[in-house]
Write a structure and sequence with these properties.
Blueprint lengths: L4 H36 L5 E7 L5 E7 L20 H9 L6 H7 L3 E3 L6 H5 L14 E3 L1 H4 L7 H14 L2 H21 L1
Parallel strand pairs: 3-4
Antiparallel strand pairs: 1-2
Length: 190
C-alpha cells in the first residue's frame, strides 16, 4: 500500500519542523556531549556509517561516537570494552541518536520510520522484507516501542512492515508520543 501524497508531504513538513526545533533545543546538550566524548577518548565526536535509505538508496547516518577511536563497529555485547564511559551513558539514554536529526533535516531519514540497516543487510532481504524500504528510515519506530533491541531481526522487520502498511500521520504521532513517554519513564526508573 502506498501512502497518499498529502500524508507524505505533511510527514516531510513535520520532519523539517521537528528536526529544526530539536536541533535548536538540543544544541546545548549536543555541545556538552561532544565535549564529553572528546575528553573521554580524543578523536572524532561523530560516528558515520553507511545505511540503506528509501528504496535501498545508501546514505551516511550520523551518531555520537560511543566506542573507542579506531574500534571496528560490529556486534556489541554487554560490557564490551570498546564502549567508552561516556558511550555507555549515551547508548542507554539513546542520546547518541541526536545527530540523526541532521539526517532528518537533509531528507535522508524521518523522525518516525523503520530503523535503517546497513546496505549489506538490505541486499539480503527477502522480497517481502524489502517492503520496509518503501518508507524513509526513522529515528524512532514501531519496533522500538516493542523492546526493539530485545527483538529478533525477524520480529523487528515484522513491526517495520506493519508500520509501512498502516502508515498515517496519526500513527506517527502515537509512536512519537509513546516514545517520549517511554523515555521519560526510563529516566525516572534510572
Amino acid at each position: 500500500m502506498r501512502a497518499p501524497v498529502c500524508h507524505l508531504v505533511l510527514k516531510r513538513l513535520i520532519d523539517l519542523i521537528g528536526s529544526s526545533v530539536g536541533l535548536l533545543l538540543l544544541s546545548p546538550l549536543a555541545m556538552a556531549i561532544a565535549v564529553a566524548i572528546w575528553l573521554t577518548d580524543r578523536g572524532s565526536v561523530l560516528f558515520r556509517q553507511e545505511r540503506a535509505g528509501l528504496n535501498g538508496k545508501p546514505f551516511v547516518m550520523y551518531k555520537f561516537r560511543t566506542m573507542k577511536e579506531g574500534s571496528e563497529s560490529g556486534t556489541v555485547v554487554c560490557g564490551d570494552p570498546r564502549i567508552t564511559s561516556a558511550g555507555r551513558l549515551l547508548r542507554t539514554s539513546s542520546l547518541d541518536e541526536i545527530p540523526q536529526l541532521i539526517n532528518v533535516l537533509k531528507g535522508e531519514m524521518s523522525l518516525v520510520g523503520p530503523r535503517p540497516d546497513r546496505p549489506s543487510h538490505a541486499e539480503g532481504y527477502s522480497e517481502r522484507v524489502r517492503g520496509r524500504l518503501k518508507m524513509k528510515p526513522g529515528i524512532m519506530g514501531l519496533a522500538q516501542l516493542h523492546h526493539g533491541r530485545r527483538l529478533t531481526w525477524e520480529e523487528r522487520y515484522e513491526y517495520d512492515l506493519e508500520y509501512v502498511e498502516r502508515f498515517t500521520i496519526w500513527l506517527d504521532l502515537r509512536i512519537t508520543l509513546a516514545s517520549v513517554f517511554l523515555a521519560r519513564m526510563f529516566q525516572r526508573e534510572g
